[in-house]
Description:
The chain is α+β, with helices and mostly antiparallel strands. Helix content is 38%, strand content 19%. It has 13 helices and 17 strands. The longest helix has 37 residues, at 27-63.
Amino acid sequence: MLDSKYLRQDIEQAAARLATRGFELDIAAVTALEEKRKTLQVQTQELQSERNASSKAIGQAKAKGEHEKAQQLLDSVSNLGDQLDSVKAEQDAVLEELKQIALAIPNLPDESVPVGEDEDQNVEISTWGTPKSYDFEVKDHVDVGQDVNGLDFEMGVKISGARFTVMRGQVARMHRALTQFMLDTHTEQNGYTEMYVPYLVNSASLYGTSQLPKFAGDLFHTLGLVDDDGQQQPGFSLIPTAEVPLTNSARDEIYDESDLPIRLTAHTPCFRSEAGSYGRDTRGLIRQHQFDKVELVQLVKPEDSMQALEELTGHAEQILQALELPYRKVILCTGDMGFGAAKTYDLEVWLPAQNTYREISSCSNMVDFQARRMQARFRRQGEKKPELLHTLNGSGLAVGRTLVAILENYQQADGSIVVPEVLRPYMGGLEVIK
RNA sequence: GGAGAGAUGGCAGAGUGGUCGAAUGCACCGGUCUUGAAAACCGGCAGGGGUUUGUAGCCCCUCUAGGGUUCAAAUCCCUAUCUCUCCA
């Protein structure tokens, strides 16, 4: 959510900045509603003030035993209630309308973000590593995985359906080893605290990190219980990323300045409906309804958040480097960024079979956008007023896609897969999957 | 599954219709005293919003959440959520 004061004061500028990411702000509508809000709010408060004063006077009169005076006052405020109710109802309707608009406005892009319409205008920042050359025909991860009997797509379809996969044996073990390696790296070297969090969350959390109200269709939702009156109660939703539970740990909190920065990491499965992505990446592990991810979240002071984004992205890069997987770092243009992001770097890993780079991590600075929705704040030493903190999140990394990258980059002519050195301690010293 | 109790400021805890946004204690912050600290004493100490040039003043809202009764609700009623106790 954007700062409503900023929106009021400089709606033209806000609209211009939002336009760079393809969002059209209806200035006339917002301004008109805002005018209405102002009038109604002042009216409501004046009536409330009047009522409060009278009530107080009635109480005092009764306490002194002045019953006649009390009765007079009572008569004079008799119709105040109805007036107040109608004005208040009008005000509530306007406030609700403004709130719905506010919840649907995306974040302002940071000044440093290149302006562009879609992913074609994203800008490569750097590359790391050199794609290997192979003296044999490279297979994609589907064939590599199936040939060692480690990936079973048919079984996933049987058990659940499309976009579900079963892993088996040493491949499943490597998948587990990857999460262990990632978590250990982030907790032991990068100062993150490991968290175990719920995978089912309430709607308040989803509003907090801004999956709701706009992106309900991207999520899986459970049905709530049916109560005694036969009413369907609201259910939980499956997390699309650990960003939701991790970031919402700060919801309605006021931290001491000395608590910050807070760095959290968690390994969770992620669940996405992938509605609207029919036909895309239907082969293989790239786009699944369920996949594992190690997530990095930081809660920081506003002045530290841009530096924190660089560091957080570096933490994700560290995993790719340790696994010796070639990748590139891209800054997303205004048109390709997620709803709540002010600035985003994507890390894309080299996939030899596709002869291209594919996203494996997305690291974003949300600045105060989520914090405002969540009322996640901190108090500076010696200051009275709490301030909104800044939130960041990034994948460190998507585990399934990392496995894909290893299967493809570490394949050998005989169909076996070399285990990256850093993973061997996690796999009982295993060097090759045959 | 059955019965009951509860949810108040950072924490503990009073308040059961009328100057209560809320006693008191602890914690915290500032000051006096002290070489320094402790103790003692003095003072401060919830959040959100509106109006406004204003971090001034004034006003509104918030005692788990939502609804209701009333001129007036932390206090009465209903619902939800959570916590605890006892029984099976």
